[in-house]
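RECORD TYPE: inverse folding
INPUT: structure tokens
STRUCTURE:
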């Protein structure tokens, strides 16, 4: 019995490593937004009921679950199979699960034109491609929130600053 659990553990670990490596190439490895900063994100985003929010690379789902609690329709796009399965499982226990969608997808292949709010915590190395995607797809007035790194060439409408914590940038298309 013990050896079955060891195998399950090793396989899960292997899946995590392989899919995390793949995600790193596609946009960023998994590293969560600090829980304290999820609160700062919510203050900055001022999410309204029924707004459509995307987290591009939703990781363990903390941003989408917190946003769903504010009444938003949320969709987490996730390219890592491990994180997708984990977040889909966590979704089962969310009170607002009807308003939560978790998609196993590469964000580069997902059109997000219906977004009211877009959040991401991704590597700045992909920002120029991401900026192009956002400029092409987003409607006027969409809130774009970038964690840690600003978007070069865009003027933030607000920056959330806290000592010892990364900045969070709010933009409006
Ligand atoms: C730094 S983590 C941030 C997770 C989550 N957004 C948060 O703030 O806690 C980046 C996430 O993006 C995912 N990711 C990276 N490239 C992606 C892509 N091209 N499409 C979808 N997800 C991607 C990774 O698997 C990882 O879970």
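DESIGNED SEQUENCE:
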């Amino acid at each position: 019995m013990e050896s079955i659990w060891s195998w399950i553990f090793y396989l899960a670990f292997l899946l995590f490593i392989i899919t995390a490596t793949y995600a790193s190439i596609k946009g960023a490895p998994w590293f969560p937004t600090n829980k304290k900063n999820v609160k700062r994100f919510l203050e900055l985003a001022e999410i309204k009921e029924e707004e459509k929010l995307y987290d591009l690379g939703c990781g363990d789902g903390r941003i989408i679950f917190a946003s769903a609690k504010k009444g938003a329709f949320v969709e987490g796009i996730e390219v890592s199979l491990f994180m997708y399965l984990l977040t889909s499982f966590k979704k089962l226990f969310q009170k607002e699960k009807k308003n939560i969608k978790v998609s196993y997808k590469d964000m580069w292949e997902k059109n997000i034109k219906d977004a009211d709010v877009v959040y991401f915590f991704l590597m700045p190395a992909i920002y120029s491609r991401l900026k192009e995607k956002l400029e092409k797809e987003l409607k006027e007035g969409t809130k774009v929130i970038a964690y840690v790194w600003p978007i070069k060439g865009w003027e933030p409408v607000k920056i959330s600053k806290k000592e010892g914590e990364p900045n969070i940038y709010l933009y409006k298309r």
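NOTES: The radius of gyration is 16 Å.
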